[in-house]
Amino acid sequence: MRKRFVLLTLVIFFSIVMLTYAGEKPRIGVLRFTNTVAGNSFWAWNPKVATDLQDMLISELASTHAFQVLERKEIGAILTEQDLSASGKVSKSTLVKMGKIKGAQYLIAGTVSAFEMSQSTGGRIRFKGISLGGRKTKVYIAIDIKVIDTETGEIIDTRTIEAKAKGTKIGAGLSLRNFDIGGTEAKKTPVGKAIRACIIYISEYLKCSLAKVHYPRCMKKWDKMEKKRREKTKGSIDLDI
Predict the structure, then answer these.
(1) Mean pLDDT, residues 100-111 taken together
(2) Biggest CA pair distance of the chain
(3) Residues 6+ apart with CB under 8 A from 41
(4) What domains can be seen in the chain, in order of their start residue?
(5) Please, which pLDDT band fits residue 121 given cuts at 50, 70 and 90?
(6) CA 77 → CA 71, 73, 80, 215, 234, distances in Å?
(7) Angle formed at CA 188 by CA 115 and CA 229, multiple of 5 degrees
(8) pLDDT value, residue 20
């Protein structure tokens, strides 16, 4: 009985300590992505793609439950609703309180900095005049992220996140001319899978570096991956010294 009492006391004590030092979750906003890949050859880069990536990262960050993810893309609609509430045309019982919009502590900016895709055609099957061929696709994508302190404008963290994917498609092959990240079929392609994986990795990295979940243990894994990436990149370049 005494042991149970001591154990219960310790559990209550550490729970209070954890609540005391838990602090507020970081308040973050996500900017639209940009693209620096030469020629924009891998998809028709346009504002829709930029906001698709923004929405994907917002969703993944929110699903970690480690942040207060603030809506910035639709801030105009929010302000319009508040203006309507302040106009006197809305029922008093449903008025929106003014001055409650939270400011972001950090802004997350992402840039697609590398994209590689290779395709190889496999054997063809012919049956009663119908010809089917298999096409293997390998995709590599890299996204550079920046964490910006909104109070100082300082870039407090940067990281390059990579992802790879491969797959086989039967038929005429994969068309990327008007690639729509949000499309159901697009998500099943190697390109869609690589993009989604890269976005998930970004959210996991920020959960570690910014929200400090499982820190510093988690950072050892990311630093090891970063070192490996840098060594691989340097190894692919020949310098005359």
Answers:
(1) 91
(2) 84
(3) 115
(4) 26-76+103-233 (3.40.50.10610)
(5) low
(6) 10, 9, 5, 37, 47
(7) 35
(8) 36
